[in-house]
Design brief:
By secondary structure, the protein is mainly α. It has helices at 2-23, 35-47. 53% of the residues lie in helices and 0% in strands. The model has no long low-confidence stretch (mean pLDDT 80). Residues 45-66 are annotated as: Disordered.
Length: 66
């Protein structure tokens, strides 16, 4: 029973983090209560590899089977 509660709380914390990121730092705004949280999220996302939306579609890899 305790493990289920912990898993649900972790899932809720992750969902709240995604919502806060989508509401503020993703749009370039500061988080209202703690700007440091937005800075940490932005640094974390900047360190991850992403695809360039302006990239040449001929050079973007397409998964096999399409």
């Amino acid at each position: 029973m305790g493990a289920i509660v912990v898993v649900v709380l972790v899932a809720l914390a992750l969902a709240a983090t995604v919502i806060v990121y989508a509401a503020y730092p993703y749009r370039g705004a500061q988080t209202p209560l703690s700007p440091r949280v937005g800075e940490v999220m932005r640094r974390g996302v900047d360190s991850l590899p992403t695809l360039d939306p302006q990239a040449d579609p001929e050079r973007v890899p397409v998964p096999a089977g399409r």
